Amino acid sequence: MWDFFIVIFRDSTSILLVALGILIMQLGGVINIGAEGMMLIGAFFGILGTFLSGYTGLGILIALIILAIFGFLFGLMTIYWKGNQVVVGVALNLLAEGMTTTLSRQIFGTGSQSTIQGFKPIFLGVSVMTYVALALVLALYFFLYHTNLGLRIRASGEYPIAVDIAGIDVYRVQLTAVVIGAMIIGLGGCSLSMAHMNSFSELMTGGRGYIALAAVALGQYKPIGVLLASLMFGASNTLQYHLQASITKFPAPIIRIIPYVVTIIAVIISGKNSKDPSALGKKYIKFS
């Protein structure tokens, strides 16, 4: 039974980290459909940095720097240049898929050449990334509800005009939220490739970025709620592994869609009691 819970926490970790990154962005008023692509970029550059340097810590640092750059560009295009947030996010996903696939084939070729010595299980059988994710839940709760910057981020997603009237640069606050969120999403990608798989494979995120989007909505935009929603999705993923192993005569493709069916149901349920930030996805024009 304990092994079952270990697998749940392992499968939930990357989704939780990505969801926490999305949470910060969307509380600031910016929709991030591109989380899947950001996660894939983090997964790839975490492996590449570790492969080239031999140090997992340096691999994560490189991934975070790359994601900070992508987050900054995403913020420029959506916040300052008023690009459609959904369209820019979709474009980011396509760019990430093409870029990581091409670079992976050029650098690693095919097979298991990208395999590294990733994070091994530590206390209670889970990796350090799981404890980092749990610590981030508490840290983000404190940050969002007990710091000035956290209050400004939440206000920018609810009442940006009030933030503007108070003399605070709404665009800068939103851009800060996007960059921080992108880095946390990148950490989720590193967790997947460096603590779960220990290698990079093309399109390895497998829709986890979209599941994380659902976890944010289902968690009602609260860090603890996002944690519980992520654990639920992790449990559904673990369940499909268990069913594939125990029910060999049942078509595997049908079993594999269980997490996505759960996601659709969760989105429908959360949509009835949606607590989206009032200004989410809306282009804000500052006072001159």
What does this structure look like?
With 288 residues, the chain is mainly α. It has a single domain (7-108, 125-272), classed as Orthogonal Bundle (ABC transporter involved in vitamin B12 uptake, BtuC), CATH 1.10.3470. The chain is built from twelve helices and no strands. Helix 1 crosses helix 6 (148-158), helix 2 runs parallel beside helix 4 and helix 2 packs across helix 8. The longest helix is centred in the middle third of the chain and has 28 residues, at 170-197. The chain is globular. The relative contact order is 0.21.
List strands and helices in order, with pairings.
Elements: H1 2-27, H2 35-53, H3 56-80, H4 85-107, H5 128-146, H6 148-158, H7 160-165, H8 170-197, H9 208-218, H10 223-246, H11 252-256, H12 258-272
